[in-house]
TrEMBL record, chains A, B:
This is Aromatic compound dioxygenase. The lineage of its organism: Eukaryota, Fungi, Dikarya, Ascomycota, Pezizomycotina. PANTHER family: DIOXYGENASE, PUTATIVE (AFU_ORTHOLOGUE AFUA_2G02910)-RELATED, INTRADIOL RING-CLEAVAGE DIOXYGENASES DOMAIN-CONTAINING PROTEIN-RELATED. Its cofactor is Fe(3+). SUPFAM superfamilies: Aromatic compound dioxygenase.
Length: 319, 319
């Protein structure tokens, strides 16, 4: 632990370390760096260095953090993103989600609020027909018929060709890619709306589950004396031609952990009510939910960050 | 790129985002977390979130950084630590080195200054006898006889049983573990002093070299329009019973890149002069250098951070 006994304060500034070091690192950036890269790097270096100095971070402590990060990378592949999970338990994904997509989501006439993507989305979930089920090989008393309409938040008109990409966890708390016992792509599907903008499909009423606990994110939660649970939720990505994509989750109002989601993703406007199903022999619950999308143009007016513009950082996320 | 057109300022604080979010994440830490873990996490979360808000970091930009970090972890193994390299190009290792080991290194009567470990040290370098060479299978006109004495910085007395662990790069700019053409453990060795505290061995006058450029650290340097070169240097770890270990590097005064080391490790007191060798047929240069060590007790008086104490973060660096 860093001691507070600082015998050697140099009083060359507000702290006792080399007052020019951080500036030297920031100024090493060359003239050809893109402006956004220069800005983000300068700010990141300043915050990282301030963090280290304010806490008198030792080499040993830095090495612990470094090894957690390297281990997260080593565990990450096309089925698991442990680095993302590490960010999630520190609230970072929820925050950049807010920054990127911030909309007045509580107002009735605004687009559906966003929530984090999370590390379990998979590309190319199977295309399904309206009325299909995404459940395969699971007996359950939580069979749910979900239905609703996708509309333009401003005009109220139905959106044709909206693709609703849905995924949720199995009753054992595992997504299919975490669980060899589940069929590939179980509890995932993509549904495309027709002229009426309506959608409906069968899924399960989801359960709370712990995020993976066997890696660096689990170690961090343990060290922080925090539980790893997420409240019951269903994930969605909505896309439609001319409309800004919506990445979101809806949360079961009856679920535990609404107040202390391990990854800080819950928003009031995304809490929904599962109702007992009356006449449908294929469903135990009914879940009506409507999605409101914004055109790119409308979204721009309401967004605080230029999420629709190209990133200008000069390197791509994929190698 | 984040736009500056913020249409929706909520004026609920100094920024337009949820003013309670960061506090909620920090407050999620449970009562059983160790105090140092609580402190470091709260500070890290605050800085990370401030960084994201101040720059209106978008999801896309965060994902780019995340993928760089995951990729660094994936590339890291017992021969390469890319996460460390990523920290190094942002000056973080040099800073935590300064914080941990800060000593008045410029004064004549103080212990040898420290410098970063870097990612190329290997455990269990071969034990050698005084006068041995660490060079194997390399023809060179930069053969160097390095010699000196290891003393107690306060009493000036020679230290018996000091182990000098040395490693440096080959003339092709590669450490042996990066280079299949070099014998295992080439240009590495451990020398133990006798009663007189003296040491001497043969090595090479090293060359500047680029840090590995094929991973995330290289991408970052490229995006920052920075070169990847380090000035010519030799690495050391000094250990001795009862003395605080010294991790350091010495730098050739004639080398390029002393002013713009890619990893910001150069300190004035660590710059040395290679002298032409006169009478030794086995050496082209002579390099006299003395090391001054401090007992744990003396080091404590001079150190700003409790580097000699056990880390109290509650998780270990190794899994």
């Amino acid at each position: 632990m860093a001691s507070s006994g600082a015998a050697m304060t140099e009083s060359n500034g507000t702290h006792k370390f080399n007052a020019h070091f951080t500036k030297a690192v920031i100024n090493a950036t060359g003239p050809k760096a893109l402006p956004r890269v220069r800005q983000l790097t300068a700010s990141l270096v300043q915050h990282l260095h301030d963090f280290a100095r304010e806490n008198e971070l030792t080499v040993d402590e830095w090495m612990i953090g470094l090894e957690l990060m390297n281990e997260a990378g080593r565990m990450s592949n096309d089925r698991r993103n442990e680095g993302q999970l590490l960010c999630d338990v520190l609230g970072l994904e929820s925050l950049v989600d807010e920054i990127t997509y911030k909309l007045a989501a509580d107002a009735k006439d605004e687009p559906t609020a966003t929530a984090i993507l999370g590390p379990f989305w998979r590309q190319d979930a199977p295309a399904k027909q309206m009325g299909d089920t995404i459940v395969s090989g699971i007996e359950s008393n939580d069979r749910t018929w979900m239905h609703g309409i996708v509309t333009d938040f401003r005009t109220g008109k139905p959106i044709e060709g909206a693709v609703l990409d849905v995924w949720h966890t199995a009753p054992n708390g595992l997504y299919e890619q975490q669980d060899p016992a589940q069929p590939d792509m179980n509890l995932r599907g993509r549904f495309t709306t027709g002229k009426d903008g309506k959608y409906n499909f069968y899924c399960l009423r989801p359960v709370p589950y712990p995020i993976p606990y066997d890696g660096p994110a689990g170690k961090v939660l343990q060290a922080l004396d925090r539980h790893p649970y997420r409240p019951a939720h269903i994930h969605f990505i909505l896309t439609a031609p001319g409309y800004k994509p919506i990445v979101t989750q809806i949360f079961d109002r009856k679920s535990k952990y609404l107040e202390d989601d391990a990854v800080f993703a819950v928003k009031e406007s995304l809490i929904v009510d599962f109702k007992p199903s009356k006449d449908d022999p294929k469903a135990d619950f009914e879940l009506p939910y409507d999605f409101r999308m914004a055109t790119f143009e409308d979204a721009k007016k309401h967004s605080v960050a230029g999420a629709t513009e190209e990133s200008a950082t000069g390197f791509s996320a994929k190698t």
